[in-house]
Amino acid sequence: MSVFDLFRLDNKVALITGGGRGLGRQIAQAYVEAGARIVLCSRRLENCERVKEELEVQGGEVLALQLDVTQPDSIQEVVAKTLAHFGRIDILVNNSGTSWGAPAFDMPYEAWQKVIQTNLTGTFLMSQAVGRHMRAHGGGKIINIASVAGLRGSDPEVLDAVGYSVSKGGVISLTQDLAVKWARYNIYVNAIAPGFFPTKMTKVVLERAYERIIESTPLHRVGGERDLQGAALFFASAASDYVTGQVLVVDGGSTAR
Predict the structure, then answer these.
(1) Is 164 labeled as catalytic in the residue annotation?
(2) Which of 109, 164, 210, 242 is catalytic?
(3) Position 200 confidence tier, pLDDT thresholds 50, 70, 90
(4) Reported pTM
(5) Where would you tag: which of 122, 157, 237, 250 has the fewest CB atoms within 10 A of its CB?
(6) CB-based contacts of 163, cutoff 8 Å, min separation 6
(7) Counting beta carbons within 10 angstroms of the beta carbon of residue 193, is it exposed (0 to 12), middle (13 to 18) or buried (19 or more)?
(8) What gap in Å lies between CA 55 and CA 49, rounded to an integer?
(9) What's the rounded mean pLDDT across residues 167-184?
(10) How far is it between the farthest Cα atoms of the chain?
């Protein structure tokens, strides 16, 4: 076996939430190139359908489903449809997320609830539902998309979104706790903490504070189309078979300062 074979995902089934754009789309592309079959799901089904068409042109086998991670019934429906179509789930990427920018003094209760429910509770509910299947079928890999904002306080001139930061800190804690609890079932749980990548969610922040972000990033750039794919592939593949409960920061060195 070549070392490169450790990174293959041939015939694995990967379910990616928030798969219709941004980081979810990039991860899906990497997994298709590595041989996986893909389930893309998000609230906007049309986005997933568009990415599905792109990946099918590349030879991918892809299923697109609508999903609201804040609704347990929606989660159960997606898991059931995935199992009916592919028969298994080997990899779960919890990428669905939202944010709300406001000073902590002014954060609306409804906005706080929405962010926590989507980013943290949604990650738990998806992990719980898919984890039950993984436990019954010998294990699997769960990759949670956290953020550098969950590792430390954020400069309010760059990111003033306390709910987002707290939710991502919670995702990191959830990752570590589930990794310890589920290791006995051969379920690996790891997280990726991206820095700034150009996505719909970061568009306003990058427009307002781009120069400040670049100055505080040792590599002096934001993340590119391929920069998260290696980390996502590592955690999904046999290359990480002795790694669980870890957070891999992909941020151009900003948290090293």
Answers:
(1) yes
(2) 164
(3) confident
(4) 0.96
(5) 157
(6) 99, 100, 107, 111, 112, 115, 116
(7) buried
(8) 10
(9) 98
(10) 57
